[in-house]
Design goal:
By secondary structure, this protein is of the alpha/beta class. The protein has a domain of 323 residues: Luciferase-like domain (TIM Barrel, Alpha-Beta Barrel), CATH 3.20.20. 38% of the residues lie in helices and 13% in strands. The strands form 3 sheets. It has an 8-stranded parallel beta barrel with strand order 1-2-3-4-9-10-11-13, surrounded by 8 helices. Helix 3 crosses helix 4 and helix 5 crosses helix 6. The longest helix is centred in the middle third of the chain and has 19 residues.
Length: 477
């Protein structure tokens, strides 16, 4: 039994919604609805289940391109609803759980994102966070009148300035700018609404925003640390950084990098929370969990691609068939570490010393984007989570159930109670906003706030507003 947890620090847990399940074969299970991604009742049910379990957040990723062939790569990402629309609905059917909306900066304008995020933060009463992505799918370019998808440096140059503009727009209204003084006839205090006058390399934005300052002041940022630029962005600016790390060692290295990067930016380690993706195959016994994994493997519709597997792992596979034993992998070649990991996992999960090519391929498919597969009894999964938490690998986890809704039910009903018994996870929400769930201090006042002039100055400011409006009318705008 692992040692007791530090009660001053607890896990953060969120649900990463893959409506058909994280495992590509899961949609073929009898109790999985292939149209779940568009079913309001299903979406509400998942969000409410996570909220009842006191999860920190409900997270929806996004993509701006698809094809019928996507079903063989990642079925859950073939079709899905637009994230702000969906989360507006989720906000209406929940009360406390945080909401993470994804917005792709490469194909967006800062004013639009500022309006969407500020609006949803108000409608959710301060439960929003923005997942900042620059897009990894080059096919998106063709959907936005672009000849090609920008390279990583250009995307992040654009993204960093765009985020700067959005944050300025959030501050363009001071918290108490909307006066509503009926006696004085002053709805809005003119000195508390500000143009931002941004003149940058990519954007020229005057402002102000036409939505009040968000409930949280500055909406927390989230991102996934994949490239070096994205990790640097997360360390410097994000409240939560997601990670796709398949082993404890890779998770620890990632964790150290993000925390060190935050310190280099003058932040405290607790200012940024590292949450690896976790795919829990939970059973009442270990064999039950392994049986679930093997059942899902048998449902994979993706054709075996020997050539792609060979390129991925660096192991010669020419001439082999699906049921051929996977070749021995030299234990001393550093460049074959991924192959050794694949084979070791295929051996463990299929309970055989000689996994086949198909079994190794199936593990690669189940692994998806590289998230850690925690497979075992509820006790074993809880032990693994606690070990990562206490040994510098995670501040919590972004839970990706292999199938839904059953995979979330199993995790919530079997694993979460064990985490609570160990003092590792909350039994009740102590805050309301996303910031509060993660222990963050309230955002400071608007950067544009300044000592106010005497009240007599207000009518003069109003006169200037009237002049501007008259000018707009004369020009017929």
């Amino acid at each position: 039994m692992p040692g007791s947890a530090d009660l001053e620090r607890q896990l953060h847990l969120g649900i990463f919604l893959f409506s058909l399940g994280y495992h590509p074969g899961a949609w073929r299970l009898p109790d999985v609805d292939p149209r779940a991604s568009h079913d309001p009742d299903f979406i509400a049910g998942i969000a409410r289940k996570a909220e009842a379990a006191k999860f920190d957040f409900f997270f929806l990723g996004d993509a701006l391109a698809t094809s019928a062939e996507q079903q063989y790569v990642f079925p859950s990402q073939t079709v899905r609803l637009e994230p702000f629309t969906m989360l507006g609905y989720v906000a209406a059917v929940t009360q406390r759980i945080g909401l993470i909306a994804t917005a792709n900066t490469t194909y967006a304008d800062p004013y639009h994102i500022a309006r969407q995020t500020a609006s949803l933060d108000h409608l959710s009463r301060g439960r929003l966070a923005w997942n900042v992505v620059t897009g990894a799918d080059p096919r998106a370019a063709a959907n936005f009148s672009r000849e090609q998808h920008w390279d990583n440096p250009r995307r992040y140059d654009w993204a960093e300035e765009l985020v700067d503009v959005v944050q300025k727009l959030w501050d363009s209204w001071e918290d108490d700018a909307l006066q509503g003084d009926k006696a004085a006839g002053v709805l809005v205090h003119p000195q508390r609404v500000h143009t931002i006058g941004h003149e940058g390399e990519h954007f020229q934005v005057r402002g102000p925003l036409n939505v009040l300052r968000p409930v949280q002041g500055q909406i927390p940022l989230v991102n996934a640390g994949t490239s070096a630029r994205s990790r640097a962005f997360g360390a410097a600016r994000s409240s939560v950084v997601f990670a796709g790390v398949p082993t404890l060692e890779s998770a620890q290295a990632f964790y150290r990098e993000i925390k060190a990067g935050a310190a280099a930016q003058g932040r405290l380690p607790q200012d940024v929370h590292v949450l690896p993706g976790l795919v829990p195959y939970v059973g009442r016994t270990r064999e039950e969990a392994f049986s679930l994994y093997r059942r899902l493997s048998e449902l994979i519709a993706t054709p075996l691609d020997i050539e792609a597997l060979e390129q991925q792992l660096g192991v010669p596979l020419a001439g082999l068939q699906a049921d051929s034993p996977f070749p021995a992998v030299d234990p001393h070649v550093p460049g074959l570490a991924l192959a050794r990991h694949f084979v070791a996992q295929a051996r463990l999960l299929n309970q055989t010393q000689t996994p086949t090519v198909q079994q190794v391929f199936a593990y690669g498919i189940a692994r998806g984007r590289g998230h850690f597969l925690a497979i075992g009894s509820a006790q074993e999964v809880a032990d693994t989570m606690q070990h990562w938490f206490e040994h510098g690998a995670a501040d919590g986890f972004n839970i990706c159930p292999p199938h839904l809704p059953g995979g979330l039910d199993d995790f919530v009903d079997l694993v979460v109670p064990l985490l609570r018994e160990r003092g590792l996870f909350r039994t009740e929400y102590t805050g309301v906003t996303f910031r509060e769930h993660f222990g963050a201090k309230p955002a400071p006042a608007s950067r544009y706030a300044a000592p106010l002039a005497a009240p007599a100055a207000v009518p003069a400011a109003l006169t200037e507003v009237h002049h501007r409006l008259d000018d707009v009318v004369r020009r017929g705008v």
